[in-house]
Design brief:
Chain A: Keywords: Manganese, Metal-binding, Mitochondrion, Oxidoreductase. The complex is a heterodimer of chains A (243) and B (260). Chain A is built from 11 helices and 3 strands; from the N terminus they run ααααααααβββααα. In chain A, 51% of the residues lie in helices and 9% in strands. Chain A is globular. Chain A has a 3-stranded antiparallel beta sheet with strand order 2-1-3. By secondary structure, chain B is mainly α. Chain B has 9 helices and 3 strands; from the N terminus they run ααααααβββααα.
């Protein structure tokens, strides 16, 4: 999906033409009209590949609608604003301002990245959501964790134990090709746990992801979300990275 | 406020008829068994009881619904208290007030497992008491004077508080504290369960910015929640009482400020 490529590491290079920051820093000689001249592609909210109500009863349509239209949209908007502030600060050479905006970039950019992955991690039951992984990923899970059930239990335990807001991930280390279960706080993307980490699956355990439906019983949400997890996507990513 | 109570007393109670004959070996077998069993159950524990908010659960409507309070207090706050007591049953920590327990378990930044539960129990007690039915509007007297002194005006303070709340990333709290080092009021944000007590500041008002505090009533409209808190819920009565107490510990030292 276009948005995913925008925010993988590969895209943030001058060669792709999409990397705003690297390009900006290099082209600074052009002067202060840079902001308009560059024509940076702003981040946009990706469409959901299914209807808001399609994941019921695991996740209610109301939650999906709010989650996508309000929360993810807010991350996108604020991320774009933060990038504009960054560009202004960089072109003015205002180092304190550059540093000050990093928090907003990490939070909102991370939120955009994470949620873009999340929508792909989910699939309606009718379209294959919840079907366990086969072949390469299935074997890797059995090797690493013993069984799919063991992995699910581990992710649920870590997700439930996470204090505050964050994400629980099934991660692939590109270097060692090993799978692991990781958690990140707030909207930190998985790369903050390791530069070689690739997310196969992420589960949002922020309260906005489940509170309206499950109230404070996060374990119930975690138990039910597996009914709509898109293992096909995880398998595709896994096979691509281990090719 | 939750207090530490010894759950049972280590007993050296002697039956009055035995008073003159304290030798254990002279007691009948049945009596020995009774005393032994009584002593077996006398283990001193710390225990923190869940206190009610100082108003009925529907008293904050329409700004905070009864349903929110039922879940937030009845399930989440109660859950923290239950977890804390379970942990304390197997812990040597005893004899602390809740504030002391928080500072001890915070362990200078390397928190012990009890810290999260203890801090959240205290944070929520403090939060319920930071609100009242028909709250909001303006403080008065010494609190208002101190706010005007430290922020320039009440509306500056209000704007800064709202801004701080909106800038919180993730779960956390926004506090009006009396900064004991600088001897002035200031606004701080903390993440998750972190409480300004641990670095020695004195909290005056708090606002819970965890999503569970507002999601049922406001969904993602955080700004409305924070503004409603400022305009309709914040308890300046509580703030005044807390300032009075705080001034026993911090000399604000400005002779022109009347005592709250």
């Amino acid at each position: 999906m276009a948005l995913r490529t925008l925010f993988t590491k590969k895209a943030l290079t001058r060669a792709s033409g999409l990397g705003p920051l690297a390009a900006a820093a290099g082209d600074r000689g052009l002067g202060s009209g840079l902001g308009q001249a560059r024509g940076r592609t702003a981040a946009t909210l990706p469409d959901l590949p299914y209807d808001y109500g399609a994941l019921e009863p695991a996740i209610s349509g109301e939650i999906m609608r709010l989650h996508h239209q309000k929360h993810h949209q807010a991350y996108v908007t604020n991320y774009n604003n933060a990038l504009e502030q960054l560009e202004a600060a960089v072109s003015k050479g205002d180092a304190p301002a550059v540093v000050r905006v990093q928090g907003a970039i990490k939070f909102n950019g991370g939120g955009h990245i994470n949620h873009s992955i999340f929508w792909n991690n989910l699939k309606p039951v009718k379209e294959g959501g919840g079907e366990p992984p086969h072949s390469a990923l299935g074997w890797a899970i059995d090797t690493e964790f013993g069984s799919l059930e063991a992995l699910v239990q581990k992710m649920n335990a870590e997700g439930a134990a996470l204090q505050g807001s964050g994400w629980v991930w099934l991660a692939l280390d590109k270097g060692s090709k090993k799978l692991s279960v990781e958690t990140t706080a707030n909207q930190d993307p998985l790369v903050t746990k390791g530069l070689h980490m690739v997310p196969l699956l992420g589960i949002d355990v922020w309260e906005h992801a489940y509170y309206l439906q499950y109230k404070n019983v996060r374990p119930d949400y975690l138990k039910n979300i597996w009914d709509v997890i898109n293992w096909k996507y995880a398998s595709e990513v896994y096979e691509k990275e281990t090719a | 406020m939750a207090m530490a109570l010894p759950l049972a007393y280590a007993s050296s109670v002697v039956h009055p008829f035995e008073a003159g004959r304290l030798s254990f070996s002279t007691k009948s077998t049945k009596h020995k068994k009774q005393i032994y069993q009584f002593r077996k159950v006398t283990k001193v524990l710390a225990y923190y009881g869940l206190t009610n908010p100082p108003y009925k659960l529907d008293a904050l409507e329409p700004y905070m619904s009864r349903r929110t309070l039922e879940l937030h207090w009845g399930n989440i706050h109660r859950g923290y208290a239950d977890s804390l007591n379970k942990q304390l049953a197997n812990s040597p920590l005893y004899g602390c007030t809740m504030e002391e327990l928080i500072k001890t378990t915070f362990n200078n930044g390397n928190p012990l497992p009890e810290y999260n539960n203890a801090a959240e129990v205290w944070n929520h007690d403090f939060f319920w008491e930071s609100m009242q039915p028909n709250g909001g509007r303006l403080p008065w007297g010494g609190v208002l004077d101190q706010i005007e002194k430290d922020f320039g005006s009440f509306s500056n303070f209000r704007d800064e508080f709202v801004r701080s709340a909106m800038m919180l990333f993730g779960s956390g709290w926004v506090w009006l504290v009396l900064n004991t080092n600088e001897r002035r009021l200031s606004i701080v944000r903390t993440s998750n369960a972190l409480c300004p007590l641990v670095w020695g500041d004195i909290p005056i008002i708090s606002l819970d910015m965890w999503e569970h505090a507002y999601y049922l009533d406001y969904k993602d409209d955080v700004s409305k929640y924070v503004n409603n808190f400022m305009d309709h819920l914040i308890s300046w009565h509580s703030a005044t009482a807390r300032m009075v107490r705080a001034e026993a510990f911090v000399n604000l030292g400005e002779p022109k400020i009347p005592v709250a």
